[in-house]
# Entry
Amino acid sequence: MDSKTIFVRTDDGEAEIGRRTNRLSGDIKRTLLLVDGKSTVGELLKHAAPSLRPSIGAMLKQLLEGSFIQDKADAKVGGTPRTSTPKMAMPGRKMEDEGMMELDFTSIMRVPTPEILAAEAAKAKAREDAEAQQKQQAETARLKAEQEAEQARAKAEQDAAKAAAVLAETQAKAKREMIHDHIEHCLDEEDEGVAASIRDLKQITKYL
# Structure
């Protein structure tokens, strides 16, 4: 299908637009609404919604076969537009591939504008910044967790060392008290000479 072709609506097409019939629905009727007798196929493609563009060529072909539209050049030569109504193909068929093959999109492709490129670059930069921030937050959380774990381990070691020191001191004190009690018992039973020696020994045990 030539992208420079101009289509006009036939009587059947106008009747469908006026809702006097209900033979078309969905995207095909939307395509029929785009036909204004002035715009080329290429211009119709520009005006169509993005979701409609891939299949607009195939739908124009169906409208043409169903006598809802006709080539403007044929209408001028033949006079009155055709009004016969052959059977229409159901719109449920796959039309995207056919429409894409028939239309020449090279003549209507648009080069991205600087504004579009700048917007895309800004979006990409925002995504990169967000990802970098997430990584930084995750790394900070990991370092904090490691630091807290190290502090907890050091505190546990300190508490264990203090407990061991207290236990050792308690055991040493118990030994000294037991020795002193034994010496006191011996003093009660020995003579004075022996008692003096034992007293000296008792003084020495204070340093145990």
In short: Strands lie at 7-9, 69-71.
